[in-house]
TrEMBL record:
<keyword id="KW-0472">Membrane</keyword>
<feature type="transmembrane region" description="Helical">
    <location>
        <begin position="65"/>
        <end position="87"/>
    </location>
</feature>
<keyword id="KW-0378">Hydrolase</keyword>
<comment type="similarity">
    <text>Belongs to the protease PrsW family.</text>
</comment>
<dbReference type="InterPro" id="IPR023596">
    <property type="entry name" value="Peptidase_PrsW_arch/bac"/>
</dbReference>
<keyword id="KW-0645">Protease</keyword>
<keyword id="KW-1133">Transmembrane helix</keyword>
<protein>
    <recommendedName>
        <fullName>Protease PrsW</fullName>
        <ecNumber>3.4.-.-</ecNumber>
    </recommendedName>
</protein>
<dbReference type="GO" id="GO:0008233">
    <property type="term" value="F:peptidase activity"/>
</dbReference>
<dbReference type="Pfam" id="PF13367">
    <property type="entry name" value="PrsW-protease"/>
</dbReference>
<dbReference type="GO" id="GO:0006508">
    <property type="term" value="P:proteolysis"/>
</dbReference>
<feature type="transmembrane region" description="Helical">
    <location>
        <begin position="133"/>
        <end position="150"/>
    </location>
</feature>
<feature type="transmembrane region" description="Helical">
    <location>
        <begin position="6"/>
        <end position="22"/>
    </location>
</feature>
<dbReference type="GO" id="GO:0005886">
    <property type="term" value="C:plasma membrane"/>
</dbReference>
<dbReference type="InterPro" id="IPR026898">
    <property type="entry name" value="PrsW"/>
</dbReference>
<feature type="transmembrane region" description="Helical">
    <location>
        <begin position="34"/>
        <end position="59"/>
    </location>
</feature>
<feature type="transmembrane region" description="Helical">
    <location>
        <begin position="189"/>
        <end position="207"/>
    </location>
</feature>
């Protein structure tokens, strides 16, 4: 039973990571680097949970503060911190889409461990695991797409990237906080707002994936190689 629950808890994160990894059209990232960032996101779960608990005990459980600061603010900052200091200046970060790949890896590492913890401690039914796969886990992936998209823009921006780096943190915090706030405050009618929000995030994320790929400096190189292939 435990093995089945663990497998069901890990599978959504692994599937989503594979999906966004395979969306990289030009020079996919080394799998070892992607796994490393996934593990970095997984390892940060426990210090984040301790910090969140300490903040709640110190300042109370105001729904707005909990959603946008204690939950979204703390979690997205730690993910952003890992991305900036571990990968932003790395030689493997050589095209805009790489920001999305690595941000999604960190986010899904975090989401997968969080999902395993909640599934083991509060398992009620398989439908609960499906709910967590479609909402919390995919939500983390989509927040990661937003973060990575703007971090990729900042990396290859010709001017000063500080504004884009700030946006790469601000937007995920906003979307994550809005997601949490809807679930906390609208206990009876949350689905009427969460579904449109998730549809919007998926649509915007797929647009960001295509846009980031289209801005790759490697695009011209790969196009030339395709032209030179013998017929």
């Amino acid at each position: 039973m435990i093995i089945s629950v663990l497998a069901a808890a890990v599978a959504p994160g692994a599937a989503l990571l594979a999906y966004f990894y395979l969306k990289d059209r030009y020079a996919p990232e080394p799998i070892s680097m992607v796994i490393r960032m996934f593990l970095a996101g997984a390892l940060v779960v426990f210090p984040v949970m301790v910090l969140q608990r300490a903040v709640v005990l110190a300042f109370g459980e105001n729904p707005f503060l909990f959603s946008f600061v204690y939950s979204a603010g703390v979690e997205e900052f730690f993910k952003w911190f890992l991305l900036y200091f571990l990968i932003y200046k790395h030689v493997e970060f050589d095209e805009p889409y790489d920001g999305i790949v690595y941000a999604v890896a960190v986010s899904l590492g975090f989401a997968t461990v969080e999902n395993v913890i909640y599934s083991l401690l509060d398992y009620k039914s398989f439908s609960q695991l499906l709910f967590r796969a479609f909402l919390p886990v995919s939500g983390h992936a989509l927040f990661g797409v937003v973060m990575g998209f703007y971090m990729g823009k900042a990396k290859f921006h010709t001017g000063r990237p500080l504004g884009l780096l700030a946006v790469s943190l601000a937007f995920p915090v906003f979307y994550h906080g809005l997601y949490d706030y809807i679930l906390i405050e609208l206990k009876r009618y949350w689905i009427w707002l969460i579904v449109p929000l998730m549809v919007f995030l998926w649509a915007r994320s797929l647009w960001k994936v295509n846009h980031a790929n289209s801005r790759s400096p490697l695009r011209a190189v790969y196009s030339e190689d395709e032209v030179k292939l013998p017929t």
